[in-house]
Amino acid sequence: MITRINSKKNEKTRGSLSLGFLRDPRTRVVVGLIFMLFSVYLFVSLAGFFFTGGMDQSLVDKETRELVTNPDIVVGNPGRKLGAYLSDLLVNRWFGVSSFIFCYLLFIIGLGIMGRPLKSLGKKIILSFVLVIWISLLLGYIFNFVPSGYVFPGGAHGYFVCFWLNSFIGEIGTLFLLLVSFAVILFFGFENAFNKCVTMVKAYFARKAQRKEERRMAREAAATQREMKTEQPENETEDTNLSPENEIITEAPTEDEFYSNVTEKEPIEEDHTEEITSLVTVNNQVELPLNDENREDIRQDTETITPPATDDIELTVMADKLEEQLTKNLMPDTEYDPTLDLSNYQYPPLDLLEEYASNASKVTAEELEENKNTIVETLRQYKIEITKIKATIGPTVTLYEIVPAPGIKISKIKNLEDDIALSLAALGIRIIAPIPGAGTIGIEVPNQKPEIVSMRGVIASKKFQESKYALPVALGRTISNEPYTFDLAKMPHLLVAGATGQGKSVGLNAIITSLLYKKHPSQLKFVMVDPKKVELSIYSVIEKHFLAKLPDAEEAIITDNDKVVATLNSLCIEMDSRYDLLKLAHVRNIKEYNEKFVKRQLNPNNGHRYLPYIVVVVDEFADLIMTAGKEVEQPIARIAQLARAVGIHMIIATQRPSTNIITGVIKANFPARVAFKVASMIDSRTILDSPGANQLIGRGDMLISKDSEMVRVQCAFVDTPEVDAVTKFIADQQGYPEAYMLPEYVSDTENGINSDVDLGMKDPLFEEAARLVVNTQQGSTSSIQRRFSIGYNRAGRIIDQLEAAGIVGPFEGSKARQVLIPDEYSLEHILKTVQEQF
């Protein structure tokens, strides 16, 4: 008895300790954070397994002790050995692809431990386990018939259970079992799913019955109309048809009248039933073949034959037909063509560019054989045997792909980079170990006589000419000598960096030239920032065709740093304006918006317009950061974060790849990066987050990081005379009256001193703006401008008046002004005081 009491007491003590441990808020946060971070780690490891699992499978298939203690085992999974082991365990040995649900499960459990209230947490956990098992069975059933390589999508659980079910109840029985279990999970696991399905089925049969009833009533109405025509005397019908008094010529209403009729849909009076049902429209002429007396008699007969519901349905159908006819009369058949303003514009011909390929020197067979033998001998000296080697000749670099003998460590070959470079007496040896998706190790060796890649050859390529990209860019040729093209609209922004004299300016010219060869002036505009004043000045002659600038700017090429800040902030205003247009048009991006506008589905009277793409080219970004600092970085970051959907894309270039220039904000918003040759590995990591750019050979040799893959490209060479010829060809044609005007921008510092503001001359929107600022607690000029649809100067004056009245704080640079009034009650007191004083 005493022992039982003591055991109960000990259990109670242990339970209280455990409960106290979880009741500590700090402990809950730490434990919940551990669960959430582990779920993220597990997700990354599982995702990496589908790319590196084939290479890691033989490495992790070892004893646990050896896997933990042996540092020579190097795997490619982002989660390294633990991640590779867990991924192989969960995916191949357990539940397959459905193991991703465990990441969600661990995450919500972490949230629950941290104390965040989650609706039906226990139900979510049970449902997650059920879905893991069911998805594993489904994938195991499917991939019993389809080969899947080294990955078991359903895992060992799904594979063997479905194999047993197929042998027990057959493939059809297993399929029926999966469908039934899916219905059970759907109806019992997800709320209202069963009710929604039943509602959808009932609605379908109801619509089907309604359409059947409408067709029956329409047939009865048609039969009634034929009987009425039969009863009418022929001579009276002829007189009526020939009478000019009964002929009415109708005109299509104006657009405002049409939209009002469509929205209001006024009911048609019953007395005019036969007027609408007997409409015969030919060339906008409506014939009324019956006079008033016969119409009255027939109406009485119709009332006795046709049920009351038939009139309403028939009237609705006829009204819809009339609206459709009016819509066809209003809407033009042809689509809007934005190129009609410059319909005679001609794209630059290829003859303006030089062809350098004829003078290029190719890699000889002797050079290939010599390099191959040198690589094999060098590796053999370090007891590394290879089973296969092949070469891919590029314009400046030749890629040698080798397959090492079994048991050779990849890291051992990677460490011989300098030794291979010494034996080949070459500069810029780069080893790719392994090549993604190829199962080989790549050794890039510079050619003895590099080839010049001409811009003409890249633009004339079939890949570029037949591309359907929104902003096609042809940058050069890859190692396999294929033209390298991409869509700038999907990048969506580009960071170009490299040491001085390594081809950065030529790369910018190649990007701009390829866009000029593919786009019409109505479809594309450039905003060019050139602090050096000489790199982009050659494009000033196409100002009235392709360039955009501020309304008060004298030159379209921006060279003054003060004008750069104003231009970037003006682009932010343009971005906000375009988002407002997209919101009104109920679309998500510029492509959908322009498609609607071209099809004339948007009314220009409501402010809609065709939106060209805007490409912002910033040369020597480091100089802007040094002179303007945050005033430049903030609008650039804002444009990079938001402007993709509205067709504003940025290309920034710098020759100083340091962390204070290419900051974390810039790198986060510029996922696509181009790196020319740099001096050190640190600079390469700053640009690309990986080494490699320090091993390039210069003169246009570059690495492009896009979509988590690295591509080596030889940039196409376009000389200054070629660019000059292209721009002069465009400038000699008819252009727009002026450059594309960006919205007006006036900084807060240009609005005057607040102490000199005269509140006796208050703006009419002063009180409304004050209430808006207090209610939203946001004191910015741009918010007032957007809310009241006014110009930036007027919005700036209103902000100054609010500051003079003590409603908002002083100007604080790029930050929004501080709102000094906490609530609307205090605001009313201040407004009353200002009104009494002035």
Can you offer a commentary on this structure?
It is globular and about 90 Å long. With 838 residues, it is of the alpha/beta class. Helix 2 crosses helix 4 and helix 21 packs parallel to helix 24.
Entry keywords:
4-stranded antiparallel sheet, disordered N terminus, alpha/beta, 838 residues, 52% helix
Q: Structural class of the helices, strands and pairings?
A: alpha/beta
Mean pLDDT: 77
Principal-axes shape call: globular
Strands ordered across the widest β-sheet: 9-8-17-16-15-10-14-13-11
Secondary structure blueprint with pairings:
Elements: H1 2-23, H2 25-60, H3 64-69, H4 80-95, H5 100-114, H6 121-142, H7 155-189, H8 193-231, H9 234-242, E1 247-249, H10 255-264, H11 273-277, E2 281-282, E3 285-287, H12 292-305, H13 308-330, H14 365-381, E4 386-393, E5 397-404, H15 410-414, H16 417-424, E6 430-432, E7 441-446, H17 455-459, H18 462-465, E8 472-478, E9 483-487, E10 494-497, H19 504-518, E11 524-529, H20 543-546, E12 548-549, H21 561-585, H22 590-598, E13 613-618, H23 621-628, H24 630-642, E14 648-654, H25 664-669, E15 672-676, H26 681-688, E16 701-706, E17 709-715, H27 720-731, E18 740-741, H28 766-776, H29 781-788, H30 792-804, H31 824-837
Parallel strand pairs: 10-14, 10-15, 11-13, 12-18, 13-14
Antiparallel strand pairs: 1-3, 2-3, 4-5, 5-7, 6-7, 8-9, 8-17, 15-16, 16-17
Helix pairs in contact: 2-4, 2-5, 4-7, 5-6, 6-7, 10-13, 14-16, 21-24, 29-30
